[in-house]
């Protein structure tokens, strides 16, 4: 098992960081090679692309954070839909009509049309697997002059919010000509993705024909640095201007003026496999829940930079705590030396240490515990296939639509595409369906909390803590985004002094 950097000898950490940093931005064009009116922005990002930057995968959020691929609508701070590539929209039962913005060109020079919107959305709706924002949604798209009609199998109050997901970005026809979707030179944003070097780096240049405000920076140079110690070191050494997901252990080592801490709608959760193995037994799931001391994890592993979880939805959604009621759960059983395997990943530096802490707590409760810790790209498929008895995941709860109902369906619906717990429960499915069909507002929020309660009653997931994102910005960075939803990072307004 690979130890987290905090548990390695100092010499090993130093050596690892040096190796990872060598040449990290050696190919950077930060000397204004693009001929722009400012310096290029250098970013050190945590997760390398897992699907070749296909927008139909989680890689889509990188495209959004680089302002290269855009959607029909965006979300404001409250999660309400705002115009982007669509200027306005109207609902008529199961059908929504979106008017497409005029004067937009893709990075390859072709024009944005209703037909190009239909192509992108249809590719997403018919993909296998679907983007998770479309879990449980049958969606058809048709062009109607300069507008697009989107029709769902059932009346859906969240269609605009769904279409804000970066996984439903609108790309040029060239993106779809290969076996996989390639966003290179195919977006509409203020920056054009011009080069991708596998899982090591990416280059973006300012797109001067952008339909909105011209980008202030001539480009973006991205390096993927999974090791948290090495990633934080790029800020200290001056090799990066913006560093995402600074590990808690490294935050105290940075100049406090360069660190921003943002409460996030992100929950660190222990998912228990209800489909097979020891945790098929509800009483053993209850025993695992009672064994966990989450407060010690917050204080010890996260050094107080997190909040103890009271449910799946945390303080970033302040209405959740006020609506939440006590949940009736199964009684605890005797683990009686049952052997369980917990999986997690190294990409988030705290998770391996969380796994070790849980191993100790569960062993004290009577379980025998094995750990399997890898990089996320090498463990996700096994987690989704139910290969582990338990899995520790840091999960964004409103990542796609600004509404937690989609996350709850994806993770806990019997047909959800991210159902690590292998949960299939009729009461949970009924509660999820009710939440999904309720109109936005107070009634929907109450239905969401009822769905959360139905999930918690099964002990298929044990929420442990709610994270805060820690971002590092060099002193010369201006107007970089600090986005709790992790959709925005570098915008047209971002530049380096």
Number of strands: 19
Low-confidence stretches: 1-24, 26-36
The amount of helix comes to 25-40%
> Class by helix and strand content?
alpha+beta
Characterise the protein shown here.
The chain is built from 14 helices and 19 strands. It is of the alpha+beta class. The strands form four sheets. Strands 1, 8, 9, 10, 11, 12, 13, 14, 15, 16 and 17 form an eleven-stranded mixed beta sheet that branches. A hairpin with a 5-residue loop joins strand 2 and strand 3. Helix 1 crosses helix 5, helix 12 packs antiparallel against helix 13 and helix 12 runs parallel beside helix 14. The longest helix has 17 residues. The N terminus is likely disordered.
What does this entry show, briefly?
Helices cover 25% and strands 23% of the residues. With 497 residues, the chain is an alpha+beta fold.
Which helices and strands appear, and what pairs or packs with what?
Elements: H1 10-21, E1 41-45, H2 60-65, E2 73-75, E3 81-83, E4 86-92, E5 95-100, H3 114-125, E6 139-144, E7 147-152, H4 159-162, E8 191-197, E9 201-206, E10 219-224, H5 228-236, E11 242-243, H6 248-251, E12 259-272, H7 282-291, H8 294-300, E13 306-308, H9 319-323, E14 339-345, H10 351-364, E15 368-374, H11 380-384, E16 390-396, H12 404-412, H13 426-437, H14 442-458, E17 461-473, E18 477-478, E19 495-496
Helix pairs in contact: 1-5, 12-13, 12-14, 13-14
């Amino acid at each position: 098992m690979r130890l987290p950097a905090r548990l390695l000898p100092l010499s090993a950490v130093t050596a690892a960081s040096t190796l990872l940093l060598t040449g990290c931005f050696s190919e950077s064009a930060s000397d204004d090679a693009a001929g722009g009116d400012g310096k290029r922005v250098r970013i050190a990002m945590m997760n390398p692309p897992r699907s070749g930057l296909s927008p139909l995968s989680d890689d889509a959020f990188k495209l959004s954070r680089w302002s290269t691929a855009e959607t029909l609508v965006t979300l404001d701070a409250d999660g309400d839909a705002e115009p982007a590539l669509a200027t306005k929209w109207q609902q008529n039962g199961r059908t929504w009509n979106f008017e497409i913005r005029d004067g937009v060109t893709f990075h390859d020079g072709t024009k944005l049309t209703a037909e190009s919107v239909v192509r992108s959305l249809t590719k997403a709706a018919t993909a296998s697997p679907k983007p998770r924002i479309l879990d449980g949604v049958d969606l058809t798209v048709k062009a109607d002059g300069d507008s697009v009609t989107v029709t769902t199998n059932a009346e859906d109050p969240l269609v605009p919010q769904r279409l804000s997901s970066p996984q439903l970005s609108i790309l040029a026809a060239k993106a779809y000509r290969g076996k996989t979707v390639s966003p290179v030179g195919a977006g509409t944003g203020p920056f054009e993705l011009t080069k991708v070097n596998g899982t090591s780096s990416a280059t973006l240049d300012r797109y001067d024909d952008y339909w909105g405000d011209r980008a202030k920076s001539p480009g973006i140079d991205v390096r993927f640095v999974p090791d948290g110690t090495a990633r934080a070191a790029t800020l200290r050494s001056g090799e990066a201007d913006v560093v995402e997901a600074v590990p808690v252990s490294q935050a105290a080592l940075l100049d406090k003026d360069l660190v921003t801490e943002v409460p996030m709608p992100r929950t660190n959760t222990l998912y228990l496999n209800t489909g097979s193995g020891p945790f098929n037994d509800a009483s053993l799931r209850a025993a695992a829940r009672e064994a966990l001391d989450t407060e010690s994890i917050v204080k010890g592993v996260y050094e107080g930079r997190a909040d103890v979880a009271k449910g799946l939805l945390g303080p970033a959604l302040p209405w959740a705590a006020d609506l939440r009621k006590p949940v009736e759960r199964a009684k605890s059983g005797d683990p009686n030396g049952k052997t369980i395997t917990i999986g997690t990943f190294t990409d988030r530096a705290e998770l391996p240490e969380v796994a070790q802490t849980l191993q100790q707590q569960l062993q004290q409760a009577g379980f025998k515990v094995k750990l399997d810790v890898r990089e996320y790209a090498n463990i996700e498929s096994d987690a989704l296939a139910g290969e582990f008895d338990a899995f520790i995941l840091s999960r964004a709860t409103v990542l796609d639509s600004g509404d937690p109902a989609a996350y709850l369906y994806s993770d806990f619906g019997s047909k959800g595409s991210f159902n690590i717990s292998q949960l299939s429960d009729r009461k949970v499915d009924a509660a999820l369906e009710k939440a999904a069909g309720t109109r936005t507002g107070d009634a929907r929020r109450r239905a969401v909390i009822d769905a959360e309660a139905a999930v918690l009653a099964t002990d298929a997931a044990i929420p442990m803590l709610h994270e805060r994102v820690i971002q590092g910005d060099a002193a010369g960075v201006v107007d970089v985004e600090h986005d709790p939803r992790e959709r925005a990072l570098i915008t047209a307004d971002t530049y380096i002094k």
